[in-house]
């Protein structure tokens, strides 16, 4: 079983989306379940509605999942498992005050050695619980440090060994009884039987702790891991909320379509048989272990050209619906503009003026009025050359006096694709167009 475990603390990023895509794809290839777990334990950072937004995005990318849960639903399980570790003496109660811990950390800093928990409370077991609660003494629960190094099996980075003292005796249950992030995550992965965790490189330092938790909880079937290299912006810095294009919402708002975004994210840092592909195609050859070990650079221009390519491949009628039509010819018309436009928004800025009332003011005003009259009174003419000949004859205009106003009245713009290609597609709308 694989999972996507987003935190509802901000807009879904392309890094999150890449993680969702890869988890979905590998689950599909292995024919195992794929679940979504919203990690909502950080009450202060959670933003209302972000979970729904994340699920809407997953829906738009058509990533079917077997279940959706919120991590907070499992709170009592996390607490029960922490108490079990206490009772088995694999964890201990710690009443060290923040001042004491601070002092120890300062001392480590002064001695230029990494901070490790002193072990002061390590003999305090479950038997103390009752007394501490009665006396209202605040305490946390710490898991005991491992006594051997922890090995992380990473499908991209290989095996990574973390010394036991680096994992240390860390907190699994906070003073308010809530689980810490690593504890909740490890428990939930264990309960769901997650066999492969695909997530961001940011999480790499948490992995040994989570493996240690699962080991002490007696979980035998440890998972493999894949920590995906970072996505960098053009300046070589990790993409963050400062980069507009890091948000999936921003990409949608700017007219990028799911098929193209997915294509680009699968292509990034990957060796693929072609640059343009669909999800069903990618499912045939996608292989996590072939992904680049080093960070990848996000390039909006490549995404733009991939977007244009997917718009070109889109069914004509479906494309027309993006502009409020249900007419394959309008889809074909939009495709004529893909030389100069790459996104839905850019295409819309070309299509809209064709059907909008024309601006009859300016240099070509008189010629446009003449043409409007002629077109409004003309019979239905199928062929563009015959149409052109009819207006030429009726208006007596020629050269630039003819072509520029004709283009303006038919498209609302001075430049664009060949009128001979545009005309057959807008012909049924001519009375609306030329006005
Ligand atoms: N909730 C974490 C995040 O959104 C991911 C944790 C994980 O995949 O293990 O960054």
Automatic annotation (TrEMBL):
InterPro entries: aa-tRNA-synth_I_codon-bd_sub2, aa_tRNA-synth_I_cd-bd_sf, Glu-tRNA-ligase_bac/mito, Glu/Gln-tRNA-synth, Glu/Gln-tRNA-synth_Ib_cat-dom, GluQ/Sye, Rossmann-like_a/b/a_fold. GO terms for molecular function: glutamate-tRNA ligase activity. It holds the Pfam family tRNA-synt_1c. It is an enzyme of class 6 (ligase). Coiled coil: none annotated. Its EC number is 6.1.1.17. Keywords: Aminoacyl-tRNA synthetase, ATP-binding, Ligase, Nucleotide-binding, Protein biosynthesis. Residues 3-304 form the Glutamyl/glutaminyl-tRNA synthetase class Ib catalytic domain. Signal peptide: none annotated. Belongs to the class-I aminoacyl-tRNA synthetase family. Glutamate--tRNA ligase type 1 subfamily. This is Glutamate--tRNA ligase. It comes from Sulfurovum xiamenensis.
